[in-house]
Amino acid sequence: MGLRAETPVQETPVETYDTFCSIRNNSFLPGEELKFTVYYSLFGIYVNAGHATAVTSLEHVNNKPVYHVVGTGGSNSSYSWVGKVNNRYESYIDTMTFQPVKFVRNVHENNHKKYENVTFNRVANTAISNDGVFKVPACVQDVVSSIYFARNINFDKYKPGDKISFSMFIDNEVYNMYIRFMGREEIKTKYGRFRTIKIKPLLVKGDVFDGGEKMNLWVTDDANRIPVRAESPLTVGSIKVDMMGYKNLRYPLTSLMKVR
């Protein structure tokens, strides 16, 4: 939510993920489904304000196999006072290179609407959007593919505080982004207790998020690397997202210590 960009981030990450252009998917298979509950707080008390899902499938684009990842999110009708949200994000990721070939974003947040359809030309290193043709770096990611890229990072190579850099195309701009590895810790969510890897993704400033390293994200410390909790302040209030259901994981969820 709220990924409309204003000013490109200028900070250059100090750590580079050298195999970014040749990363391979070892964390999920087509058919994986993840369900999340979104909690919103304005005065320190969190309420169940929304839901989100992430579903993967195997499809073909230009006769090449791709992972089709669809992320949807919406607000609950009983908490429309928080804000009406109905968002859909899609990424088509080449199964061989793990780079996106197409990205679709259809956002409806209160009175803000945004539709974006981007096709990536990996030979010419361009992104073709609704508004024209834009030059992009090799191996550039989109919003959705960058999340699934992060699930395949070998965090054993890094120490707490290290940054892992990548580039992302959004709103017709290329942004130098990074993920900061914070270490490992046990956390208790609405679903249960997990052993996790904690990271801080750099956020692009928009209508909802202020930008910067204000979000905390925890993913399972097992081979699946599924996100189980995210927390972030918003321009108004704060948000917490917990994983509350899953299907068709590639590996056993060994990081789950206890179901709540």
Q: What is the structural class? A: mainly beta
Strand residue content: over 45%
Indicate the radius of gyration in whole angstroms: 18 Å
Could you list the spans in which at least 5 consecutive residues all have pLDDT below 50? 1-19
User: Roughly how much helix do the residues carry, as a percent range?
Assistant: under 10%
The geometry reads as globular
The description of the largest β-sheet is: 15 strands, antiparallel
- How many domains? 1
CATH class: Mainly Beta
List the helices and strands in order: EEEEEEEEHEEEEEEE
- Please give the CATH architecture: Beta Barrel
Q: What integer is the average pLDDT?
A: 88
Short characterization:
With 260 residues, the chain is mainly β. It is 3% helix and 52% strand. The protein has one helix and 15 strands, in the order E-E-E-E-E-E-E-E-H-E-E-E-E-E-E-E.
Structure commentary:
By secondary structure, this protein is mainly β. It has one domain: Beta Barrel (YmcC-like fold), CATH 2.40.360. 3% of the residues lie in helices and 52% in strands. It is built from one helix and 15 strands, in the order ββββββββαβββββββ. The chain has one helix at residues 143-150, and strands at residues 33-41, 46-61, 64-75, 86-94, 100-109, 112-121, 126-129, 132-135, 163-170, 173-188, 192-201, 216-220, 227-233, 238-247, 256-259. It has a 15-stranded antiparallel beta sheet that branches. A hairpin with a 2-residue loop joins strand 5 and strand 6 (112-121). The protein is globular. Residues 1-19 have low confidence and may be disordered. It holds the Pfam family DUF3108. InterPro entries: DUF3108. It comes from Flavisolibacter tropicus.
